[in-house]
């Protein structure tokens, strides 16, 4: 029977792959009991009426998760979105209006949390300056093209 002796490189590669697998398993571990309780609270939240439930869900669909990339609070499964969804549900159950809940979220997280932010001078600049630059570039190209076509 022939025994193969593993070279040091193979041993290092095996150790490295074992370490990577261990790290991956640790990072995707089962959530702690407190985190699981919070998830259950959000998923099993009870409203006083069906109208309140519809209002809260529609409102949560208009609010963006601050951690996710273009997902609303209903679509996102991030812990932050679950916390915000629970807070929206609690505020609606307390009798707050949609505008009061939006104001609360904007005060806490900024206008990024809204899918349709209010029009302001800052937002106007954000949209207007690139459009103005594009128009100036087109005008410059047009003038340059006209000058090159003129016979001297």
What does this structure look like?
By secondary structure, the chain is mostly helical. It has two domains: 33-113, Cytochrome C biogenesis protein (Helicase, Ruva Protein, domain 3, Orthogonal Bundle); 119-152. Helix content is 65%, strand content 0%. It contains six helices and no strands. The chain has helices at 8-27, 33-43, 50-61, 79-93, 98-109, 121-149. The protein starts with 7 loop residues before the first helix and ends with a helix. The model has no long low-confidence stretch (mean pLDDT 79).
Q: Gist?
A:
Keywords: Cytochrome c-type biogenesis, Heme, Iron, Membrane, Metal-binding, Signal, Transmembrane, Transmembrane helix. The chain has 152 residues and is mainly α.
Q: Which terms would index this structure?
A:
152 residues; 6 helices; Helicase, Ruva Protein, domain 3; mainly alpha; 2 domains
């Amino acid at each position: 029977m022939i025994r193969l002796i593993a070279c040091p490189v193979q041993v290092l590669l095996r150790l490295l792959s074992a370490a990577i697998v261990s790290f991956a398993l640790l990072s995707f571990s089962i959530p702690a009991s407190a985190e699981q309780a919070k998830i259950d609270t959000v998923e099993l939240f009870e409203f006083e009426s069906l109208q309140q439930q519809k209002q809260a869900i529609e409102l949560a669909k208009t609010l963006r998760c601050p951690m996710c990339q273009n997902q609303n609070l209903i679509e996102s499964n991030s812990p932050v979105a679950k916390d915000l969804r629970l807070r929206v549900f609690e505020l609606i159950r307390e009798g707050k209006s949609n505008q009061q809940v939006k104001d609360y979220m904007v005060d806490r997280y900024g206008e990024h949390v809204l899918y349709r932010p209010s029009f302001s001078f800052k937002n106007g600049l954000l949209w207007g300056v690139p459009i103005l630059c594009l128009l100036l570039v087109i005008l410059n190209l047009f003038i340059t093209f006209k000058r090159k076509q003129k016979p001297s």
